[in-house]
Amino acid sequence: MIENLLFELEMAAPQVILGLVNGAFYALLSLGLAIIFGMLNVINFAHGAQFMMGAFVAWMLLAWAGIPYWGALILAPLLVGAFGVLIERTMIARLYKLDHLYGLLLTFGLALIIEGIFRNGFGSSGLPYAPPAAFNALNIDIPIMFLPGYRVWVVIASVLVCLATWLVIEKTKIGAYLRAATERPELVQAFGVNVPRMMTLTYGAGVALAAFAGVLAAPIYSVNPAMGANFIITVFAVVVIGGMGSIMGSVVTGFGLGLIEGLARVFYPEASATVVFVIMAIVLLTRPAGLFGRG
Amino acid sequence: MADTTIALGTPQAVHEEAGFLGFTRAQAMAFGVLVAFVLISPFFLYPVFLMKVLCFALFACAFNLLIGYVGLLSFGHAAFFGMGGYVTAHAAKVWGLTPELAIVAGGLVGSVLGLGIGWLAIRRSGIYFAMITLAMAQMVYFFCLQAPFTGGEDGIQQVPRGALFGAVPLDSDFTLYWVVAFVFLAGFLLIHRVVHSPFGQVMKAVRENEPRATSLGYRTDDYKLMAFVLSAALAGVAGGTKALVFGIATLTDVNWPMSGEVVLMTLVGGLGTVFGPVVGAAVIVTMQNYLAEFGAWVTVIQGVIFVACVLAFRRGVVGEIGNILKVKL
Hints:
CATH topology of chain B: ABC transporter involved in vitamin B12 uptake, BtuC
Shape of chain B: globular
Distance between the termini of chain B: 30 Å
Oligomer: heterodimer
Largest sheet of chain A: 2 strands, antiparallel
Radius of gyration of chain B: 19 Å
Number of domains of chain A: 1
Order of helices and strands of chain A: HHHHEEHHHHHHH
Structural class of chain B: mainly alpha
CATH class of chain B: Mainly Alpha
Mean pLDDT of chain A: 87
Protein name (chain B): Branched-chain amino acid ABC transporter permease
Largest interface: A-B, 45 and 47 residues
Order of helices and strands of chain B: HHHHHEEHHHHHHHH
Low-confidence stretches of chain A: none
Mean pLDDT of chain B: 87
Helix content of chain B: 55-70%
Number of strands of chain A: 2
Subcellular location (chain B): Cell membrane
Shape of chain A: globular
Strand order of the largest sheet of chain A: 1-2
Number of domains of chain B: 1
Strand order of the largest sheet of chain B: 1-2
Keywords (chain B): Cell membrane, Membrane, Transmembrane, Transmembrane helix
Number of strands of chain B: 2
Number of helices of chain A: 11
Number of helices of chain B: 13
Membrane topology (chain B): Multi-pass membrane protein
Structural class of chain A: mainly alpha
Distance between the termini of chain A: 49 Å
């Protein structure tokens, strides 16, 4: 009996942990989407492409400039975030007065461009990116499973960054401005806050979050041009389920759905790819605004 | 903020006069040009290429019915297009149905799928609607990836074209062309008829001001759902026809880039215009044909067209022409 249970656990534990790792990425990506949407009212379809760029920049930094993982973890989000700022200034900023769907179409086009360029430059097969050996210290080796230290780190890093983002938005002055500008941009502008610049920086920050997730993902998934597209549609479903009203909501939903996906892989593997979408359908039927959404 | 927003696909305000089939005079002339082109072109151009254009034109018209007249941006139309293709291919190959029945089967499955997805998606609007349709379509994609009848990565190959009504063999491209042309024109006129019916007027009212349409006593959700089902059915017909033309149904047609492609076609031609989707489909299919050798650059070029259209060319080809001529096309 107990042996049986242990065996079940041995089967289940790695998948559940893998789900948690996926959840870490869902959380980071949906957090960035939610921040951008809150401030700019734009669904950033290029989020997956920017996630992929983060991974590629990390790879380039290592291969071409010899900058290791830790440097990339800081530099890649900054570089890709700067790219995001450029995009917001030159393109997205022109669309604020139009239907929000144009923002979706524009960023969809950008995603095609970015992914196409990387596919031309690097091909469709992935590039390897080895995690630093230091993470072996975090390896968890217990009777029911072996867990590579790097994956432990991904979950920790994601939780920390999500927490830090939440703190910045809820507890600092700049976060207060941000929340105010999300609700009433004209009024905040009347108080002398430069709202257009805040929008630019918000977009840059959201993109930087995606790139950060990309660097985290580089050692786990092979660095390839399609890695973002595979993630982003699931993340959209996560965003619909969580609702975009709250920061914590998107983080909790992200981790939760990652876990559920992992569990599905154990108990009903055929459904693992679709379980998130099924949950989305159920949530839409019962709470159309999303679990944490308002209105 | 809300009153400065320019809704997607809002047509230019031009006086509408009823004429032939409810077309305005300019539209009737444009329709005449379109029919003439459909009739004459197979004598000059490669019929398979033309059939591809017509299938995508019908697909884009079906998509445009939603965005142009109801104001809903679906990012999941590949599901109906691709599934229509699979069902038609399966019906023609395994069940041995005649081509017209196989296409009808594709359209029926498209509409059933549209009923399910639409029923969920109309609970939200705007950006959420786009994301929900995208996510549900991705679910359909995963289903097609795993379901045994679709053949997974191989797709359904060597689909027989069969004989129309069991009597007219369609093996010649030239014969099949007339069937495809008929399907396209019938679909095009059906959409036009629907848009100009009392039902279509309510659809437009929902797009312009949903609360007001509700206050007038219309169940706006029902209208949205019916439009969605019709659009999905026609997308299924388009996908089924394409599967017969090429004798193959694959995952490409059901995956999300295909949903993006139909948005692009309609955007290039002109959102909410009558003839825009047809022109857009012709432009994009032609482009893909000539640029096929450039491989992945096609994606980049499509992305650039997307960005250019959104930033500087929101009326699209037909919308711009209509604007210059001061007519609604």
